[in-house]
Amino acid sequence: MTSLVKFTIIKLIIITILIVTPITLLIWFLLRVYVVKPIEYFNKITKIIATGNLGRKIEYLSNDELGELGQNINTMVKNLSTAFQSMATSLRSEKIKEKELQNANEKLKELDKVKDEFVSIASHELRTPMTAVKGLISMIFEGDFGSLSEELKDPLSDIAVSTDRLIQLVNDMLDTSRIEAGRLKFLLGDFSAGDLASEILSLLKPLTDEKGIVLETQPAAEKIYTDPNKFKQILSNLIGNSIKFTDSGRISVSFRVNGEYLCVCISDTGLGISREDREKLFGKFTQISTTQTGRPKGTGLGLYISREFARKLGGDLWIESSEIGKGSTFVFSSTRSGTAAAKKVGESLQMFVDMEI
Amino acid sequence: MCYSENIDMRVLIVEDDPILLKMYREKFEKSDFDVDTAVEGEAGLFKAINDQPDFIVLDLMMPKMDGVQALKKLKEDVRTKNIPVAILTVIPQDQASGLTKELSDQIVYYWMKDVVKPSGVVEDTKKYLLDTKND
Questions:
Q1: Could you tell me if A309 and A165 lie in one domain?
Q2: Is B41 in contact with B68 (CB distance < 8 Å)?
Q3: Which residues on A lie below 8 Å from B23 (Cβ)?
Q4: Sign of CA dihedral A120, B112, A131, A168
Q5: Is B68 exposed, middle or buried (0-12, 13-18, 19+ CB in 10 A)?
Q6: Using CB atoms, which residue from A139, A171, A357 is nearest to B27?
Q7: Nearest Cβ partner of A134 from B19, B27, B114?
Q8: How far is B55 from B80, CA to CA, in rounded Å?
Q9: Among partner residues B19, B90, B99, which is closest to A357 by beta-carbon distance?
Q10: Long-range contact list for A165-172, CB < 8 A, 24+ apart?
Q11: Among the three residues A149, A179, A209, which one is the final residue of a domain in this structure?
Protein backbone atom coordinates (compact mmCIF):
# COMPACT_ATOMS: atom_id res chain seq x y z
CA MET A 1 0.00 0.00 0.00
CA THR A 2 1.23 3.35 -0.90
CA SER A 3 1.71 5.98 1.69
CA LEU A 4 -1.01 8.06 -0.02
CA VAL A 5 -3.62 5.38 0.49
CA LYS A 6 -2.58 4.95 4.11
CA PHE A 7 -2.87 8.69 4.67
CA THR A 8 -6.32 8.78 3.07
CA ILE A 9 -7.56 5.92 5.35
CA ILE A 10 -6.20 7.60 8.49
CA LYS A 11 -7.80 10.87 7.38
CA LEU A 12 -11.10 9.15 6.88
CA ILE A 13 -10.90 7.49 10.29
CA ILE A 14 -10.07 10.79 11.96
CA ILE A 15 -12.89 12.57 10.11
CA THR A 16 -15.33 9.78 11.09
CA ILE A 17 -14.23 9.95 14.73
CA LEU A 18 -14.54 13.70 14.73
CA ILE A 19 -18.06 13.57 13.29
CA VAL A 20 -19.46 10.44 15.05
CA THR A 21 -18.17 11.17 18.56
CA PRO A 22 -19.95 14.53 19.01
CA ILE A 23 -23.11 13.08 17.46
CA THR A 24 -22.96 10.10 19.85
CA LEU A 25 -22.27 12.40 22.76
CA LEU A 26 -25.15 14.63 21.72
CA ILE A 27 -27.50 11.64 21.41
CA TRP A 28 -26.30 10.35 24.82
CA PHE A 29 -26.84 13.75 26.36
CA LEU A 30 -30.28 14.15 24.84
CA LEU A 31 -31.29 10.61 25.92
CA ARG A 32 -30.01 11.29 29.40
CA VAL A 33 -31.93 14.57 29.75
CA TYR A 34 -35.16 13.67 28.03
CA VAL A 35 -35.54 9.92 28.65
CA VAL A 36 -33.27 8.45 31.34
CA LYS A 37 -33.65 11.27 33.87
CA PRO A 38 -37.46 11.39 33.70
CA ILE A 39 -37.59 7.56 33.93
CA GLU A 40 -35.29 7.62 36.95
CA TYR A 41 -37.47 10.35 38.46
CA PHE A 42 -40.62 8.30 37.72
CA ASN A 43 -38.92 5.29 39.26
CA LYS A 44 -38.06 7.23 42.42
CA ILE A 45 -41.55 8.70 42.81
CA THR A 46 -43.38 5.44 42.06
CA LYS A 47 -41.20 3.70 44.65
CA ILE A 48 -42.28 6.30 47.23
CA ILE A 49 -45.95 5.84 46.17
CA ALA A 50 -45.51 2.06 46.41
CA THR A 51 -44.57 2.41 50.09
CA GLY A 52 -48.06 3.82 50.66
CA ASN A 53 -47.44 7.53 50.38
CA LEU A 54 -50.35 8.39 48.13
CA GLY A 55 -49.79 12.11 48.65
CA ARG A 56 -46.81 12.19 46.32
CA LYS A 57 -47.22 12.95 42.65
CA ILE A 58 -45.06 13.46 39.59
CA GLU A 59 -44.30 17.17 39.52
CA TYR A 60 -42.27 17.74 36.37
CA LEU A 61 -44.29 16.95 33.34
CA SER A 62 -43.14 17.39 29.78
CA ASN A 63 -45.39 17.67 26.76
CA ASP A 64 -44.49 14.32 25.30
CA GLU A 65 -45.42 10.65 25.86
CA LEU A 66 -43.45 10.56 29.12
CA GLY A 67 -45.37 13.55 30.34
CA GLU A 68 -48.59 11.77 29.47
CA LEU A 69 -47.37 8.66 31.32
CA GLY A 70 -46.61 10.83 34.34
CA GLN A 71 -50.06 12.41 34.12
CA ASN A 72 -51.63 8.94 33.97
CA ILE A 73 -49.64 7.83 37.01
CA ASN A 74 -50.85 10.94 38.88
CA THR A 75 -54.49 10.22 37.97
CA MET A 76 -54.11 6.57 38.99
CA VAL A 77 -52.62 7.55 42.36
CA LYS A 78 -55.35 10.13 42.90
CA ASN A 79 -58.07 7.55 42.16
CA LEU A 80 -56.34 5.02 44.37
CA SER A 81 -56.16 7.55 47.17
CA THR A 82 -59.89 8.36 46.82
CA ALA A 83 -60.75 4.65 46.83
CA PHE A 84 -58.64 4.06 49.92
CA GLN A 85 -60.22 6.98 51.69
CA SER A 86 -63.76 5.79 51.01
CA MET A 87 -62.76 2.27 52.07
CA ALA A 88 -61.31 3.63 55.30
CA THR A 89 -64.45 5.68 55.92
CA SER A 90 -66.74 2.72 55.36
CA LEU A 91 -64.52 0.51 57.53
CA ARG A 92 -64.68 3.11 60.26
CA SER A 93 -68.46 3.31 60.05
CA GLU A 94 -68.66 -0.51 60.01
CA LYS A 95 -66.53 -0.57 63.14
CA ILE A 96 -68.74 2.02 64.79
CA LYS A 97 -71.85 0.02 63.82
CA GLU A 98 -70.25 -3.17 65.14
CA LYS A 99 -69.43 -1.47 68.42
CA GLU A 100 -72.98 -0.08 68.64
CA LEU A 101 -74.39 -3.57 67.99
CA GLN A 102 -72.09 -5.04 70.60
CA ASN A 103 -73.22 -2.44 73.13
CA ALA A 104 -76.88 -3.06 72.29
CA ASN A 105 -76.35 -6.80 72.58
CA GLU A 106 -74.70 -6.44 75.96
CA LYS A 107 -77.52 -4.18 77.15
CA LEU A 108 -80.08 -6.76 75.98
CA LYS A 109 -78.22 -9.53 77.77
CA GLU A 110 -78.15 -7.44 80.94
CA LEU A 111 -81.88 -6.71 80.61
CA ASP A 112 -82.58 -10.39 80.04
CA LYS A 113 -80.64 -11.24 83.18
CA VAL A 114 -82.49 -8.59 85.16
CA LYS A 115 -85.80 -9.94 83.84
CA ASP A 116 -84.83 -13.50 84.79
CA GLU A 117 -83.80 -12.40 88.26
CA PHE A 118 -87.04 -10.46 88.58
CA VAL A 119 -89.15 -13.46 87.55
CA SER A 120 -87.24 -15.72 89.89
CA ILE A 121 -87.47 -13.33 92.86
CA ALA A 122 -91.11 -12.50 92.12
CA SER A 123 -91.98 -16.19 91.99
CA HIS A 124 -90.16 -16.80 95.26
CA GLU A 125 -91.80 -13.84 96.94
CA LEU A 126 -95.24 -14.83 95.64
CA ARG A 127 -94.95 -18.48 96.52
CA THR A 128 -93.64 -18.00 100.05
CA PRO A 129 -96.82 -16.37 101.45
CA MET A 130 -99.07 -18.66 99.38
CA THR A 131 -97.24 -21.62 100.88
CA ALA A 132 -97.89 -20.25 104.35
CA VAL A 133 -101.63 -19.92 103.57
CA LYS A 134 -101.80 -23.43 102.14
CA GLY A 135 -99.75 -24.97 104.95
CA LEU A 136 -101.68 -23.24 107.73
CA ILE A 137 -105.05 -24.27 106.23
CA SER A 138 -103.86 -27.87 106.06
CA MET A 139 -102.83 -27.62 109.73
CA ILE A 140 -106.25 -26.19 110.66
CA PHE A 141 -107.94 -29.13 108.89
CA GLU A 142 -105.60 -31.55 110.67
CA GLY A 143 -106.73 -30.13 114.03
CA ASP A 144 -103.39 -28.60 115.00
CA PHE A 145 -105.15 -25.47 116.28
CA GLY A 146 -108.10 -27.14 118.00
CA SER A 147 -111.30 -28.57 116.57
CA LEU A 148 -112.73 -26.91 113.50
CA SER A 149 -116.37 -25.85 113.51
CA GLU A 150 -118.60 -27.16 110.71
CA GLU A 151 -119.46 -23.62 109.49
CA LEU A 152 -115.80 -22.83 108.89
CA LYS A 153 -114.98 -25.97 106.94
CA ASP A 154 -116.64 -24.78 103.72
CA PRO A 155 -115.07 -21.29 103.48
CA LEU A 156 -111.70 -22.70 104.50
CA SER A 157 -111.92 -25.30 101.72
CA ASP A 158 -112.65 -22.50 99.29
CA ILE A 159 -109.60 -20.59 100.53
CA ALA A 160 -107.53 -23.75 100.10
CA VAL A 161 -108.80 -24.32 96.53
CA SER A 162 -108.17 -20.67 95.59
CA THR A 163 -104.68 -20.79 97.07
CA ASP A 164 -103.94 -23.94 95.07
CA ARG A 165 -105.14 -22.17 91.95
CA LEU A 166 -102.92 -19.18 92.68
CA ILE A 167 -99.91 -21.42 93.22
CA GLN A 168 -100.70 -23.27 89.99
CA LEU A 169 -101.03 -19.98 88.14
CA VAL A 170 -97.65 -18.74 89.35
CA ASN A 171 -96.05 -22.06 88.44
CA ASP A 172 -97.67 -22.11 85.00
CA MET A 173 -96.70 -18.52 84.27
CA LEU A 174 -93.13 -19.30 85.26
CA ASP A 175 -93.10 -22.36 83.01
CA THR A 176 -94.53 -20.28 80.16
CA SER A 177 -91.91 -17.57 80.60
CA ARG A 178 -89.17 -20.24 80.65
CA ILE A 179 -90.57 -21.84 77.48
CA GLU A 180 -90.65 -18.50 75.71
CA ALA A 181 -87.19 -17.47 76.84
CA GLY A 182 -85.84 -20.89 75.80
CA ARG A 183 -84.65 -21.46 79.34
CA LEU A 184 -86.31 -24.75 80.20
CA LYS A 185 -83.95 -27.13 81.94
CA PHE A 186 -84.19 -30.87 81.64
CA LEU A 187 -82.99 -33.72 83.82
CA LEU A 188 -82.99 -36.63 81.42
CA GLY A 189 -82.76 -40.33 82.05
CA ASP A 190 -84.32 -43.73 81.35
CA PHE A 191 -87.51 -44.37 83.30
CA SER A 192 -90.34 -46.86 83.36
CA ALA A 193 -93.42 -45.12 81.93
CA GLY A 194 -95.65 -47.36 84.02
CA ASP A 195 -93.90 -46.41 87.28
CA LEU A 196 -94.09 -42.69 86.53
CA ALA A 197 -97.77 -43.04 85.64
CA SER A 198 -98.51 -45.01 88.82
CA GLU A 199 -97.06 -42.21 90.94
CA ILE A 200 -99.42 -39.70 89.34
CA LEU A 201 -102.40 -42.02 89.46
CA SER A 202 -102.01 -42.65 93.17
CA LEU A 203 -101.79 -38.89 93.75
CA LEU A 204 -104.96 -38.22 91.76
CA LYS A 205 -106.95 -41.26 92.90
CA PRO A 206 -108.51 -39.41 95.89
CA LEU A 207 -109.94 -36.82 93.45
CA THR A 208 -111.58 -39.42 91.18
CA ASP A 209 -112.84 -41.37 94.19
CA GLU A 210 -114.44 -38.21 95.48
CA LYS A 211 -116.27 -37.71 92.16
CA GLY A 212 -117.15 -41.38 91.87
CA ILE A 213 -115.17 -41.86 88.66
CA VAL A 214 -113.08 -44.95 87.94
CA LEU A 215 -109.38 -44.20 87.33
CA GLU A 216 -107.66 -47.15 85.74
CA THR A 217 -104.41 -48.02 84.04
CA GLN A 218 -102.60 -50.99 82.61
CA PRO A 219 -99.09 -52.13 83.50
CA ALA A 220 -96.38 -50.85 81.17
CA ALA A 221 -92.84 -52.16 81.35
CA GLU A 222 -91.66 -49.96 78.50
CA LYS A 223 -88.70 -47.69 79.32
CA ILE A 224 -88.67 -44.16 78.02
CA TYR A 225 -85.96 -41.53 77.82
CA THR A 226 -87.44 -38.42 79.41
CA ASP A 227 -87.41 -35.83 82.16
CA PRO A 228 -89.46 -37.62 84.85
CA ASN A 229 -90.82 -34.45 86.44
CA LYS A 230 -91.96 -33.00 83.14
CA PHE A 231 -93.45 -36.36 82.07
CA LYS A 232 -95.41 -36.46 85.35
CA GLN A 233 -96.48 -32.83 84.90
CA ILE A 234 -97.87 -33.58 81.43
CA LEU A 235 -99.71 -36.68 82.62
CA SER A 236 -101.01 -34.98 85.74
CA ASN A 237 -102.28 -32.07 83.66
CA LEU A 238 -104.10 -34.33 81.19
CA ILE A 239 -105.67 -36.52 83.88
CA GLY A 240 -106.52 -33.38 85.88
CA ASN A 241 -108.39 -31.98 82.85
CA SER A 242 -110.26 -35.25 82.44
CA ILE A 243 -111.28 -35.21 86.10
CA LYS A 244 -112.51 -31.63 85.72
CA PHE A 245 -114.73 -32.43 82.74
CA THR A 246 -115.94 -35.93 83.63
CA ASP A 247 -118.94 -36.36 85.88
CA SER A 248 -119.39 -40.10 85.66
CA GLY A 249 -117.79 -43.11 84.05
CA ARG A 250 -114.09 -43.67 83.80
CA ILE A 251 -110.71 -42.23 83.02
CA SER A 252 -108.22 -44.73 81.67
CA VAL A 253 -104.53 -44.40 81.01
CA SER A 254 -103.12 -46.83 78.45
CA PHE A 255 -99.87 -47.23 76.53
CA ARG A 256 -99.04 -48.22 72.96
CA VAL A 257 -95.72 -48.56 71.20
CA ASN A 258 -95.40 -46.64 67.95
CA GLY A 259 -91.95 -47.20 66.40
CA GLU A 260 -89.39 -45.24 68.38
CA TYR A 261 -92.09 -43.71 70.54
CA LEU A 262 -94.32 -44.76 73.41
CA CYS A 263 -97.76 -43.17 73.30
CA VAL A 264 -99.60 -42.51 76.55
CA CYS A 265 -103.36 -42.31 75.94
CA ILE A 266 -105.69 -40.64 78.43
CA SER A 267 -109.33 -41.43 77.67
CA ASP A 268 -112.34 -40.17 79.55
CA THR A 269 -116.09 -40.38 79.35
CA GLY A 270 -116.47 -36.66 79.95
CA LEU A 271 -118.01 -33.68 78.14
CA GLY A 272 -115.95 -33.92 74.95
CA ILE A 273 -114.62 -31.04 72.86
CA SER A 274 -116.14 -29.65 69.68
CA ARG A 275 -114.04 -29.72 66.50
CA GLU A 276 -113.66 -25.92 66.39
CA ASP A 277 -112.48 -25.74 70.01
CA ARG A 278 -109.80 -28.40 69.64
CA GLU A 279 -106.84 -26.36 68.31
CA LYS A 280 -107.83 -23.31 70.38
CA LEU A 281 -107.26 -25.36 73.53
CA PHE A 282 -103.51 -25.38 72.98
CA GLY A 283 -103.27 -21.59 72.97
CA LYS A 284 -102.21 -19.63 76.01
CA PHE A 285 -104.91 -18.71 78.52
CA THR A 286 -107.56 -20.54 76.50
CA GLN A 287 -110.39 -22.17 78.32
CA ILE A 288 -113.65 -23.28 76.86
CA SER A 289 -115.91 -20.92 78.69
CA THR A 290 -119.25 -22.42 77.57
CA THR A 291 -118.51 -25.74 79.20
CA GLN A 292 -116.84 -24.21 82.23
CA THR A 293 -119.88 -23.05 84.18
CA GLY A 294 -119.74 -24.36 87.69
CA ARG A 295 -116.50 -26.20 87.09
CA PRO A 296 -113.18 -25.51 88.79
CA LYS A 297 -111.22 -23.01 86.77
CA GLY A 298 -107.75 -23.73 85.54
CA THR A 299 -105.06 -21.34 84.41
CA GLY A 300 -105.59 -21.88 80.68
CA LEU A 301 -101.89 -22.64 80.32
CA GLY A 302 -101.79 -26.34 81.12
CA LEU A 303 -102.21 -27.76 77.59
CA TYR A 304 -99.89 -25.18 76.07
CA ILE A 305 -97.16 -26.04 78.61
CA SER A 306 -97.76 -29.79 78.32
CA ARG A 307 -97.51 -29.73 74.52
CA GLU A 308 -94.31 -27.64 74.67
CA PHE A 309 -92.79 -30.04 77.21
CA ALA A 310 -93.75 -33.07 75.09
CA ARG A 311 -92.28 -31.50 71.95
CA LYS A 312 -89.05 -30.34 73.63
CA LEU A 313 -88.64 -33.91 74.90
CA GLY A 314 -88.84 -35.23 71.34
CA GLY A 315 -92.49 -36.28 71.31
CA ASP A 316 -95.81 -34.54 70.76
CA LEU A 317 -99.26 -34.09 72.28
CA TRP A 318 -102.58 -34.15 70.46
CA ILE A 319 -106.27 -34.82 70.76
CA GLU A 320 -106.84 -38.22 69.20
CA SER A 321 -110.60 -38.21 69.35
CA SER A 322 -113.36 -36.33 71.02
CA GLU A 323 -117.09 -36.33 70.77
CA ILE A 324 -119.46 -33.98 72.51
CA GLY A 325 -121.12 -35.81 75.37
CA LYS A 326 -119.09 -38.98 74.90
CA GLY A 327 -115.59 -38.05 76.03
CA SER A 328 -112.11 -37.40 74.72
CA THR A 329 -108.80 -39.15 74.21
CA PHE A 330 -105.62 -37.12 74.56
CA VAL A 331 -102.32 -38.71 73.57
CA PHE A 332 -98.74 -37.72 74.20
CA SER A 333 -95.68 -39.48 72.91
CA SER A 334 -92.25 -39.98 74.48
CA THR A 335 -89.06 -41.35 72.97
CA ARG A 336 -88.34 -44.97 73.91
CA SER A 337 -85.00 -45.66 75.60
CA GLY A 338 -82.13 -46.61 73.35
CA THR A 339 -83.71 -45.39 70.11
CA ALA A 340 -82.16 -42.95 67.67
CA ALA A 341 -84.95 -40.48 68.52
CA ALA A 342 -83.98 -40.67 72.22
CA LYS A 343 -80.33 -40.11 71.34
CA LYS A 344 -81.29 -37.05 69.33
CA VAL A 345 -83.25 -35.63 72.28
CA GLY A 346 -80.25 -36.20 74.55
CA GLU A 347 -77.98 -34.39 72.13
CA SER A 348 -80.34 -31.48 71.54
CA LEU A 349 -81.02 -30.93 75.23
CA GLN A 350 -77.33 -31.37 76.03
CA MET A 351 -77.82 -33.84 78.85
CA PHE A 352 -78.28 -32.00 82.10
CA VAL A 353 -78.04 -35.32 83.91
CA ASP A 354 -74.40 -35.13 84.89
CA MET A 355 -74.09 -31.41 84.68
CA GLU A 356 -74.62 -28.76 87.27
CA ILE A 357 -78.33 -28.24 87.68
CA MET B 1 -97.27 -40.79 116.49
CA CYS B 2 -96.76 -44.09 118.23
CA TYR B 3 -93.07 -44.32 117.43
CA SER B 4 -92.23 -40.84 118.59
CA GLU B 5 -90.77 -41.93 121.92
CA ASN B 6 -88.54 -44.46 120.28
CA ILE B 7 -86.30 -42.04 118.48
CA ASP B 8 -84.32 -39.05 119.45
CA MET B 9 -85.86 -36.25 117.41
CA ARG B 10 -84.07 -32.97 117.45
CA VAL B 11 -84.60 -31.02 114.29
CA LEU B 12 -82.98 -27.77 113.16
CA ILE B 13 -85.10 -25.64 110.82
CA VAL B 14 -83.21 -23.02 108.79
CA GLU B 15 -85.79 -20.70 107.19
CA ASP B 16 -85.80 -16.93 106.73
CA ASP B 17 -89.55 -16.32 106.47
CA PRO B 18 -90.82 -15.81 110.06
CA ILE B 19 -94.35 -17.08 109.35
CA LEU B 20 -93.19 -20.23 107.61
CA LEU B 21 -90.61 -20.79 110.33
CA LYS B 22 -93.32 -20.49 113.00
CA MET B 23 -95.61 -22.81 111.01
CA TYR B 24 -93.07 -25.60 110.55
CA ARG B 25 -91.84 -25.19 114.11
CA GLU B 26 -95.40 -25.68 115.43
CA LYS B 27 -96.00 -28.70 113.22
CA PHE B 28 -92.76 -30.38 114.34
CA GLU B 29 -93.38 -29.52 117.99
CA LYS B 30 -96.91 -30.94 117.83
CA SER B 31 -95.31 -34.16 116.64
CA ASP B 32 -93.00 -34.20 119.68
CA PHE B 33 -89.87 -32.97 117.98
CA ASP B 34 -87.38 -30.87 119.86
CA VAL B 35 -87.06 -27.89 117.50
CA ASP B 36 -84.24 -25.43 117.06
CA THR B 37 -84.36 -22.66 114.45
CA ALA B 38 -82.11 -20.31 112.50
CA VAL B 39 -83.07 -17.56 110.05
CA GLU B 40 -80.12 -17.82 107.68
CA GLY B 41 -77.36 -20.19 106.65
CA GLU B 42 -74.52 -18.93 108.80
CA ALA B 43 -76.54 -19.09 112.02
CA GLY B 44 -77.83 -22.51 110.91
CA LEU B 45 -74.29 -23.75 110.43
CA PHE B 46 -73.26 -22.47 113.86
CA LYS B 47 -76.22 -24.22 115.53
CA ALA B 48 -75.63 -27.41 113.57
CA ILE B 49 -72.02 -27.57 114.80
CA ASN B 50 -72.83 -26.68 118.42
CA ASP B 51 -76.14 -28.44 118.97
CA GLN B 52 -75.65 -31.50 116.73
CA PRO B 53 -79.33 -31.94 115.70
CA ASP B 54 -80.56 -35.27 114.33
CA PHE B 55 -82.02 -33.71 111.22
CA ILE B 56 -81.70 -30.40 109.39
CA VAL B 57 -84.47 -28.78 107.31
CA LEU B 58 -82.87 -26.20 105.06
CA ASP B 59 -84.44 -23.44 102.97
CA LEU B 60 -82.59 -22.42 99.79
CA MET B 61 -83.16 -18.71 99.26
CA MET B 62 -81.94 -16.87 102.34
CA PRO B 63 -79.98 -13.68 103.04
CA LYS B 64 -76.25 -13.75 103.87
CA MET B 65 -75.53 -17.44 103.35
CA ASP B 66 -78.02 -19.26 101.14
CA GLY B 67 -79.08 -22.88 101.47
CA VAL B 68 -76.76 -24.26 98.81
CA GLN B 69 -73.70 -22.65 100.43
CA ALA B 70 -74.84 -23.83 103.86
CA LEU B 71 -75.39 -27.37 102.53
CA LYS B 72 -71.91 -27.38 101.03
CA LYS B 73 -70.34 -26.26 104.29
CA LEU B 74 -72.38 -28.74 106.33
CA LYS B 75 -71.21 -31.58 104.12
CA GLU B 76 -67.57 -30.44 104.17
CA ASP B 77 -67.35 -30.18 107.96
CA VAL B 78 -66.55 -33.45 109.78
CA ARG B 79 -68.69 -32.30 112.71
CA THR B 80 -71.84 -31.97 110.58
CA LYS B 81 -71.35 -34.09 107.47
CA ASN B 82 -73.27 -37.04 108.89
CA ILE B 83 -76.35 -35.06 109.91
CA PRO B 84 -79.12 -35.75 107.36
CA VAL B 85 -80.23 -32.62 105.50
CA ALA B 86 -83.51 -32.07 103.64
CA ILE B 87 -84.21 -29.08 101.42
CA LEU B 88 -87.51 -27.24 101.88
CA THR B 89 -87.98 -24.59 99.21
CA VAL B 90 -90.20 -23.04 96.55
CA ILE B 91 -87.48 -23.36 93.90
CA PRO B 92 -87.84 -26.43 91.66
CA GLN B 93 -84.82 -28.72 91.89
CA ASP B 94 -83.84 -28.20 88.25
CA GLN B 95 -83.81 -24.41 88.76
CA ALA B 96 -81.76 -24.31 91.97
CA SER B 97 -78.54 -22.64 90.94
CA GLY B 98 -75.32 -24.06 92.31
CA LEU B 99 -76.98 -27.29 93.42
CA THR B 100 -74.70 -29.79 91.72
CA LYS B 101 -75.56 -33.44 91.17
CA GLU B 102 -73.00 -34.33 93.83
CA LEU B 103 -74.68 -32.04 96.38
CA SER B 104 -78.15 -33.29 95.34
CA ASP B 105 -77.04 -36.83 96.17
CA GLN B 106 -76.28 -35.72 99.73
CA ILE B 107 -79.79 -34.53 100.54
CA VAL B 108 -82.38 -36.93 101.89
CA TYR B 109 -85.48 -35.08 100.64
CA TYR B 110 -86.17 -32.21 98.29
CA TRP B 111 -89.54 -30.84 99.38
CA MET B 112 -91.38 -28.18 97.43
CA LYS B 113 -93.17 -26.04 100.03
CA ASP B 114 -96.16 -25.52 97.76
CA VAL B 115 -96.54 -29.24 97.08
CA VAL B 116 -95.70 -30.98 100.36
CA LYS B 117 -97.89 -30.03 103.33
CA PRO B 118 -96.28 -29.39 106.76
CA SER B 119 -97.66 -32.77 107.89
CA GLY B 120 -95.91 -34.40 104.91
CA VAL B 121 -92.62 -32.76 105.88
CA VAL B 122 -92.93 -34.02 109.45
CA GLU B 123 -94.01 -37.53 108.41
CA ASP B 124 -91.14 -37.86 105.92
CA THR B 125 -88.66 -36.70 108.57
CA LYS B 126 -89.99 -39.20 111.11
CA LYS B 127 -89.92 -41.97 108.55
CA TYR B 128 -86.33 -41.18 107.63
CA LEU B 129 -85.14 -41.07 111.25
CA LEU B 130 -87.02 -44.25 112.12
CA ASP B 131 -85.71 -46.11 109.05
CA THR B 132 -82.10 -45.12 109.69
CA LYS B 133 -82.43 -46.00 113.38
CA ASN B 134 -83.69 -49.45 112.50
CA ASP B 135 -80.94 -50.07 109.96
A1: no
A2: no
A3: 132, 135-136, 139
A4: positive
A5: buried
A6: A139
A7: B114
A8: 10
A9: B99
A10: A165/A296, A165/A297, A165/A298, A165/A299, A166/A130, A167/A127, A167/A130, A167/A131, A167/A134, A167/B114, A168/A298, A168/A299, A169/A299, A169/A301, A170/A123, A170/A126, A170/A127, A170/A130, A171/B114, A172/A299, A172/A301, A172/A302, A172/A305
A11: A179
Q: Which domain holds residue A149?
A: 103-179
The tens-digit pLDDT sequence of chain A (357 residues) is 678 889 999 999 999 889 998 899 999 998 888 888 888 888 888 888 888 888 888 887 778 888 888 888 889 889 988 998 999 999 999 999 999 999 999 999 888 878 777 877 777 788 889 999 999 999 999 999 989 899 999 999 989 888 888 888 888 888 888 888 777 888 888 999 999 999 899 989 989 999 999 999 988 888 999 998 899 999 999 999 999 889 999 999 999 999 999 999 999 999 888 888 887 888 887 776 555 556 667 778 899 999 999 999 999 999 998 888 889 999 999 999 999 998 888 888 764 443 333
Cβ(A160)–Cβ(A134) below 8 Å: yes
A355 Cα to chain B: minimum distance (Å): 7
CA distance readout (Å), A238 to A257, A307, B85, B114? 19, 10, 34, 20
pLDDT, tens only, A167-181: 888 888 888 888 887
Phi, then psi, of B90 in degrees rounded to 5: -105, 0
Does A164 lie in the same domain as A277?
Answer: no
Q: Give Dmax (Cα) for chain A.
A: 167
Bridge partners of B45, per DSSP, are none
Domain match, A126 and A14 both: no
CATH code, domain with A217:
3.30.565.10
Mark whether A212 and A324 lie in a shared domain: yes
pLDDT value at residue A353: 45
Q: Which of A125, A144, A179 is the last residue of a domain?
A: A179
For residue B58, the cross-strand partners are: B14, B87
> Are A131 and B113 inside 8 Å of each other by CB?
yes
Please tell me whether the interface predicted TM-score (ipTM) of this complex is above 0.90: no
Residue ranges per domain, chain B?
4-134
Spatial separation of the C-alpha atoms in residues B82 and B88, rounded to whole Å: 19
CATH of domain B4-134: 3.40.50.2300
